[in-house]
Amino acid sequence: MTPQIKIEIIQRSFKCFVMGVLGLIPLLGLPLAVAALGHNRRINQLRAGNWNPAYRYQFWGVVGARMGIALLFLAGTAVMACLTMLNYWPTYH
Known about the structure:
The chain is mainly α. It has helices at about 5-20, 30-45, 55-90. It is rod-shaped, with a radius of gyration of 19 Å.
């Protein structure tokens, strides 16, 4: 692995971490979470089985991105369920 590739892996790992943590922000964090997952994919392509010195940043960035996306869809599902229940809830007037 050349030094340039190692530098890119470290930089992308840190970007993945920052974007993954910011991906926890509701609605605004969705594009950042997707970008963090994109950085993760590129890191795994560049790494090609070699050791990543900034693996912890990559790992926690991916965890934050996945949690942000999951929480967004969970909240969206809860809102849709509440709106559906309120719309079709029987009223006795």
